[in-house]
Amino acid sequence: MTPAAIDDTTLYAVLAPFAAAVVAPILTRWFKHNAAWPLAIVPGLIFLHFAGFIGPVSEGQTFVASMAWAPSYGVNFSVYVDGLSTLFALLISGIGTFIILYAGGYLKGHPQQGRFFSFLFMFMGAMLGLVLCNNLISLFIFWELTSITSFLLIGFDHLRAASRRAAVQALVVTGGGGLVLLAGFIVIINATGEIEMSVLLSSPDLIKDSGLYVPIFLLVLGGAFTKSAQFPFHFWLPNAMEAPTPVSAYLHSATMVKAGVYLLMRVHPLLGDTALWTTVLPLFGGITLLVGTILAVRMTDLKLMLAYTTVASLGLLVMLTGTSHEKALEGAVLYLLAHSLFKGALFMVAGTIDHEAGTRDITKLGGLRSAMPITFVAACLAALSMAGLPPFIGFIAKEVLYYGTWGWLELGLPITVTAVIGNSLMLVIAAAVAIKPFFGPKVDTPKHAHEGPVLLFAGPVFLSVTGLGLALIAHTTGVLFVGPTLSSLLGEFKSIDLHLWPTKINAPLILSVITIGLGIALFTQLDRLRAIIAGILAAIGWGPDKGFDQFVSGVVGFSAWITRHLQTGKMHTYMMLTFGFTALAVLLPGFLTNSLPAMPKMPEYRFYEWGIFFIAILGLIAVLIAKTRLTAIVSLGIQGFAVALIFMMFGAPDLSFTQFMVETLSVVILALVMTRLNLSPRDHRTAPAALGTGVIAAAVGLGLTLTLLAITQQPFDSRLSEFFTEYSRSIAHGRNIVNVILVDFRGVDTLGEIAVVVLAGLCVLALIRVRTKPEPDSEGSEPDVVQTQKAEAR
Hints:
The protein has 794 residues and is an all-alpha fold. It has helices at residues 9-31, 36-39, 41-51, 54-58, 83-106, 113-132, 136-154, 161-192, 197-202, 213-227, 236-239, 245-250, 259-266, 268-271, 277-298, 302-323, 326-357, 373-386, 393-406, 412-435, 454-472, 474-490, 507-524, 526-540, 544-566, 571-592, 607-625, 629-649, 653-676, 687-712, 719-730, 737-745, 747-769, 784-793, and strands at residues 4-5, 63-70, 75-81. It has 34 helices and three strands. A hairpin with a 4-residue loop joins β2 (63-70) and β3. This is Monovalent cation/H+ antiporter subunit A.
């Protein structure tokens, strides 16, 4: 179905959070402790706007809107609204509304609360742009903007070294993955000739038939895996828990970390259902699921336990998406929705406990259900959904995904076993989060525990109750949210019928019973299980997190080594490097691609033309055999005079005159400069050094010669010459075309060139006027070698 065009309101909805980011610090100063209420109106209105698309999208309609951004490059700020983007937009804006309120209570009285709100809104806008953008390049811009804004949020408490390290780590991993993704988008554009996602989705076989499927697949996977913390890039997400809890609840459970999953779901019609897709994604997703849940069991910090289960959940989503099985994809969509609700709620619960009790360590918590009854209820509801128990949306998601993995013929059994083990361990963590802090005898906590204000418990209560409500109206949930999103993944309209309770005893129900039984059994042995995992991790020792530090140290060490060898402070070294790389740049492409120009035939030269070449060769020999620097500079002018004679013979007396003047002035100025510099009269370089310099000079000369030959052998396009010939007289009122070009048509360029020459002259004058105090030797005179080194440094 062709997308319908809509007005620019949706574009403004994407940009609205950026406007809120500007005014957030001002409103915070005006309203002080109540700024969260007016600020929450912005994401609330955005949610209502996208809620208006639920009905049409559930019927299979899609929409596009576009605004010119960089039209000369084909880059537009355009949006594509379908089931997948609508679901993500609702989650981002809906959960974002309660995160703004939660942040108002969590950071109440913080001197930088306004700055925090501003960062949070910028991230919200970046995330909305990411999931709604239709143009690949604009999608990438918002993709990287999420990395930048998350860097600001993770490092919000920048006085702590741990926060700074976590922020840098997240930026390096996700930002680096973003650059890989950009390469993938460029390959897609070059392979298909299309830059709009909606156009690509209308012809899903364009990439698979292009012959570049494998590099595109690997590059897109690089961006998705780093953003969604897939093994071995999973380590950055738990470290990001150094951020304030509102950041953890929003960025790293409900929104940003699902950007990679969104991308995989978005490109599924283009890249999915191939042997490579159904092998790589389930493999890495399954490993991430197991690694995340096992490491979560090891933790005792509430936020870290939830962070590692987020890693595991992302692995589960990637694994399900990788099957390309319709029922498994339906389970992935359901689990995506369920996870956003229960994990956002549980993170806010963990933050509330920390805020009101003073600790997040479950070994130091207990008996809080009487002191924090509302938080306790929200934690139980969210944990039951996380554990996959009825009657919650998490239970339906687990049933559907088991149906999908069990029915997948290729690798159904190992994928199902992996899902059962992962979900069982997920139940262990859910039980630990809901039971350990609230049940048992009352434990003395660092702060006197009590229920938080409404700003702290409004979000957890709403999200956890929503997880229950969506399950109770399962059929409506399937029609309005799951079906349209599944249609986006499959590239065709799908209508599904969800039910809360199984109609019969089947394999998914049996697998759910096994999961619950195994989870309860493991929970009863939680302390022993934690000790076993800790021992295994201690025995392994090295991990990706430590590897990241080693990688950064290696990069810093290599940079220092490069700097020591390249940034020597000597002009000779800089000139050698500059001309050496220039030679490589002009020579290597021709040799590697075997596209060297054909050598021209030797023309019939007249005797005076041979005389000019003879003069030029004599000048070259004079430069090479010159005994002093001054003689070499004067001899160098012979080459310029030879070129001036060539201009004169070919009927360009004005250019010839200019060349004569430039060469004469250059020689005079250089000679005068040398009288002001304390240079040794001779070149003290050794023979090997002089030979190396000569090789580089010859390479540059050869490269430029070949480049000029290649240019002159191209077909001549006379349109520009004809334009100047026709209009120099009529428009610029000048007969000399060259002068007209320099003064009129390129007047601004000429002015810039003059400014550069003047600035360079002033800099040279300043360097000449610098006086360095002599460093006399034992006899009171400065050695020649010291003079030479100082001159080179200048």
